[in-house]
Design goal:
Elements lengths: L1 H31 L6 H10 L32 H12 L7 E4 L6 H14 L6 E5 L9 E5 L3 H24 L2 H30 L4 E4 L6 E4 L1 H10 L5 E2 L2 H21 L4 H63 L4 H16 L1 H6 L20 E4 L9 E4 L4 H5 L1 E2 L2 E3 L2 E3 L5 E2 L2 H5 L3 E5 H6 L3 H11 L1 E2 L4 H6 L11 E2 L3 E6 L1 H10 L3 H4 L2 E4 L3 E3 L2 H18 L6 H15 L4 E3 L2 H17 L7 H14 L2 H12 L9 E3 L1 E10 L2 E15 L5 E4 H4 L5 H18 L7 E7 L12 H13 L2 E3 L2 E3 L2 E2 L5 E2 L4 H14 L7 E5 L10 H9 L3 E5 L2 H9 L17 H88 L1
Parallel strand pairs: 1-16, 1-17, 8-13, 13-16, 21-26, 23-24, 26-29, 29-30
Antiparallel strand pairs: 2-3, 2-7, 4-5, 4-6, 9-12, 10-11, 14-15, 18-19, 20-25, 21-22, 22-24, 27-28
Length: 938
């Protein structure tokens, strides 16, 4: 019964507390939505309201030219004085490593500005030398590089080509002439005569030994044989073996016949005795003559060599006499260049040496190559040539591969054989820009293998050395040319973004040693009347180059205002050339469609609308979801812990603003002020977003921890957001949602808010402010403008406002409002209509302020917690008392049971004893009876 009464009392107390809490929260809610605005709210609203004149800065058309045809002359370096000064510093220093990295966003026109500046500088600079590669007659594998004055490379090539054609023609004539043929015949006849005389002398010597000189038929070799063998052979095969001298042949044979017959008759009886001696003598004699014949053969070979030498000497003599008149004028033409003269003399000597091969035309080295006018042996390969007094070259290489930068040696495959020669050496961008300036896109350079390494090596060594990329990649030792290096004198300008520059500094240790100068290009410029005229001059230059219609002064003003919007600053103008060129072309299109010969502001506005529509596909999808109710955005009414935050969605080249619902939920009496960032915990929040959350958490703890312990935990989340979120521009909106939930004070949903915040509660500027305001305005217009809607932005962003004209008209009409705040307290006052942090004389927040309500709830949660703990303590004490009573009762029951059991045991013992006594008495009576029987029997 006591326990039931205690539970009933606890339930009544709990219901009473809940009712008190509900009444208190209801009372607070009623207080936060007063029927008449609080004076503090009125004062803050008037102070923070931004007028329509502050929402956009217009350009005065009267201060602009009538049209772009009367625009002033263009200043090439407009807005980029810092970068041009750095560039000029690098150009003035001739030391190694003073090359330039031009850092800036894509689309600023870096290449155009630098190219125009360098073209002006290069026009007055000294024209660099020409370079040619020529055949090295000493070592054909290493072609030589010749330096020539500007314009002389082509001249040398033409002269050498002319020399070859004239030389071949003249040599062919000389070697077909009758005089040449007669000299050759004379040399041959003289040699033949000497050979015949030598053979006759040897033949005469052989007759002494009865031997005749003849030539074998199958190999035409001279041998000594017996005359009888000649006769026998003639009988078997007439005219097969002929003696040396046909005139003397018959006589010699007949004489030998007579001698042999007589000898046979006279010495018939002695033949058997002298046969052996005769054969032996014949062998010795024949062997002797064969040795004499071998000696003669050697002498005849020397005679033939002498004849050949005489013929070669004749050829050289003829070639020298034929070529000398051709080369002499060319020598005189290049007298001032000793290396060229030495090369021409080497060509002359080579032609004289190989005159037979030239005339015969059966050697590939002396045959004109395909697509050439001279053989590769005499080709003058012009690597780079400049017109005299043309200034220094300015080269932009759009495909900076290793081959395109440093040059390469081509190869040709014929019948499975790979060949190359000096005429197949190809120049690279460094060759063409040598002595001048080379512009490269840094990102393109890093895309190609070995391109950066090759460029760095060339700039450090100040030489262009051709290397085989195939050998570097395949690690093979294939035969190729190794041309002599060329001296390099150049300034290289790399174009890229600042992030790429920092990455190169970090990852490439030698980058800073090669590119010592950094030229920073600015994105925008201060908006002054002078700079507006300079930008109009830039527009006029683009219009003249693209042959567009002229733009009137109102079109110019509209373009300038749009450039300020792109710069996100009223007092600055964007310098992005790509955007300006696009606007000019599309505005010109609308003028052409309207059959106008001048572009007006209407045409520019249409072009801007077209560009905005093309990039608004995702934005239209969002607005469709908003209309269909799939996106939950509330632009009217009040809600606790719910805020319309302003965000910017960036996708590819499109960017638009949109509101996003941000909610906060409180869990009282759990935790110690922890705030759960759902976006961060699921890895949808970036580091900047996490930083903003921590700053806001620190600010709230500093506000209330000194007054009361933070006996709650909270959670924050962007509803219906499934993409990555980063940035700290939602810090103020997160603070508003959290404080609203803590104080249980509703926030006016007619407002949207954006802004960053520091730990002191000061509101800081954010980016994309114009897109954010436009996004919430469009959302309010979709759900009907009530005249109460507006946005709360940092006051620091007011100078960045360049809003659309329809938004400005709505602000003028009072159907939309824009407020600028300095602190979180001002933002909360506008959002809740309450004073925020007003204190009483005791230094505590007043109860009617937002912070006072937060502290009241913190203390209420603490009291409720304490009461619940007291009730829990009473219940626990009652339970302990019951447990103790139960334990005592249990002990008493055990004691009683033990007593009863003891008494029972005692009675059993008495009964046992009584029973035992009776048994003893019975036994005694029996004994007495037994003892009596004998007596009876006796």
């Amino acid at each position: 019964m006591t326990e039931q009464l205690h539970n009933l009392h606890y339930q009544v107390l709990k219901d009473t507390n809940n009712m008190a809490t509900s009444l208190s929260e209801l009372k607070d809610t009623e207080q936060t939505a007063p029927t008449t605005p609080h004076p503090v709210f009125i004062e803050v609203e008037q102070r923070c309201l931004i007028s329509a004149e502050q929402l956009k800065r217009y350009s005065n058309p009267d201060e602009l030219p009538t049209d772009t045809r009367t625009a002033p002359d263009l200043d090439v370096g407009f807005g980029q004085q810092r970068a041009l000064k750095a560039l000029q510093t690098a150009l003035d220093i001739k030391a190694s490593g003073y090359h330039v990295f031009a850092a800036g966003e894509n689309g600023l026109g870096k290449r155009t500005i630098i190219s125009r500046l360098l073209t002006r500088i290069a026009a007055d600079a000294q024209t660099p030398n020409d370079w040619v590669y020529i055949h090295n007659f000493t070592d054909p594998r290493t072609p030589l590089a010749l330096r020539l004055p500007a314009g002389h490379a082509d001249l040398l090539q033409q002269q050498v080509n002319h020399l070859w054609q004239q030389a071949k023609k003249r040599l062919s004539q000389r070697f077909r002439s009758d005089q040449y043929q007669s000299k050759i015949e004379a040399i041959k006849n003289n040699t033949h005569q000497k050979e015949s005389q030598a053979y006759e002398v040897l033949n005469a010597e052989g007759k002494q030994y009865d031997l005749a000189l003849t030539f074998r038929s199958f190999d035409n070799k001279a041998v000594f044989v017996h005359p009888s063998q000649i006769q026998t052979d003639n009988e078997d095969n007439e005219n097969t073996d002929q003696p040396v001298n046909n005139a003397n042949k018959k006589v010699d044979v007949e004489d030998s016949k007579e001698t042999s017959v007589n000898g046979a008759e006279d010495n018939d009886t002695e033949y058997g005795n002298s046969e052996y001696e005769t054969e032996l003598n014949n062998f010795v004699q024949k062997n002797h003559m064969q040795k004499r014949l071998s000696q003669l053969t050697i002498a005849l070979e020397q005679l033939e060599d002498e004849a050949n030498d005489a013929i070669e000497a004749l050829h050289r003599n003829i070639a020298q006499r034929a070529l000398q008149p051709l080369f002499a004028p060319v020598y005189e033409q290049f007298t001032a260049h000793p290396l060229v003269v030495d090369y021409l003399k080497a060509v002359f000597a080579d032609m004289v040496t190989h005159v037979e091969r030239i005339v015969n035309g059966d050697d590939e080295e002396f045959v004109t190559a395909v697509l050439a006018t001279t053989p590769s042996r005499y080709a003058v390969n012009v690597i780079v040539s400049h017109a005299p007094d043309s200034g220094a070259p300015v080269i932009f290489e759009d495909l900076p591969t290793h081959l395109n930068l440093l040059g390469h040696v081509e190869q040709i495959t014929q019948l499975g054989t790979v060949t190359t020669d000096v005429s197949m050496i190809r120049a690279g961008a460094l060759h063409r820009a040598n002595g001048g300036y080379l512009l490269l896109e840094a990102s393109h350079l890093l895309e190609h293998p070995y391109a950066w390494q090759g460029l760095k090596r060339a700039l450090q060594s100040r030489k262009i050395k051709l290397s085989s990329l195939e050998q570097m990649l395949t690690l093979t030792g294939s035969l190729s040319l190794s041309p002599a290096p060329i001296d390099l004198d150049i300034k290289v300008i790399l174009l890229g973004e600042a992030d790429l520059y920092y990455e190169l500094l970090e990852l490439e240790p030698e980058f800073d040693a090669v590119f010592k100068v950094r030229a920073d290009f600015h994105d925008d410029v201060v908006r002054t009347s002078e700079h507006e005229l300079a930008l109009v001059a830039k527009m006029a230059d683009i219009i003249d180059y693209a042959n567009l219609y002229p733009f009137d002064r109102h079109a110019q003003a509209t373009l300038l205002e749009h450039l300020s919007l792109q710069a996100e600053e009223q007092d600055r103008l964007s310098l992005h050339s790509d955007l300006l060129i696009k606007l000019l072309h599309e505005s010109n299109r609308h003028a052409r469609l309207d059959n106008e010969n001048i572009v007006t502001a209407t045409h520019v506005t249409q072009a801007i609308s077209d560009m905005d529509e093309r990039s608004g596909y995702l934005r239209d999808l969002y607005w469709d979801e908003l209309k269909n109710g799939q996106q939950l955005i509330q632009t009217q009414g009040h809600a606790v812990g719910q805020v319309n935050a302003l965000t910017v969605v960036s996708y590819a080249d499109s960017e638009f603003g949109m509101p996003a619902r941000l909610t906060a939920v409180i869990q009282p009496n759990i935790g110690a002020g922890e705030i759960l960032d759902i976006e961060r915990d699921v890895d949808l929040g970036g580091s900047l977003h996490a930083k903003g959350m921590l700053i806001m958490t620190s600010y709230l703890r500093a506000l209330f921890s000194q007054h009361h312990a933070l006996n709650f935990s909270a959670s924050l989340a962007f509803e219906q957001s499934y993409a990555h979120i980063d940035g700290d521009s939602a810090t103020v909106s997160e603070g508003c949602a959290l404080l609203s939930a803590l104080a249980n004070v509703p926030i006016d949903q007619s407002f949207a808010i954006t802004g960053s915040m520091n730990q002191l509660g000061e509101v800081q500027a954010v980016g994309g402010i114009n897109a954010k305001i436009a996004g919430f305005f469009d959302a309010c217009r979709e759900q009907e403008l009530t005249g109460q809607q507006g946005v709360v932005i940092p006051m620091a962003n007011v100078k960045q406002l360049m809003l659309r004209d329809d938004i400005i008209e709505a602000v003028k009409a009072g159907s939309f409002h824009i407020y600028g705040v300095h602190t979180l307290s001002e933002a909360l006052t506008l959002m809740t209509g309450l004073p925020i942090d007003t204190m009483n004389k005791k230094g505590r927040y007043r109860k009617d302020t937002l912070f006072g309500k937060v502290l009241s709830r913190l203390m209420l949660w603490d009291e409720n917690q304490n009461e619940e703990e007291d009730i829990d303590d009473k219940k626990s004490k009652k339970k302990d008392k019951k447990k103790r009573k139960a334990r005592r009762q249990k002990k008493e029951d055990h004691r009683r049971k033990d007593t009863a059991k003891h008494q029972k045991n005692e009675s059993e013992v008495v009964d046992t004893m009584n029973g035992r006594k009776e048994v003893i008495d019975d036994e005694k009576s029996i004994d007495n009876d037994e003892n009596a029987k004998p007596l009876d029997s006796i």
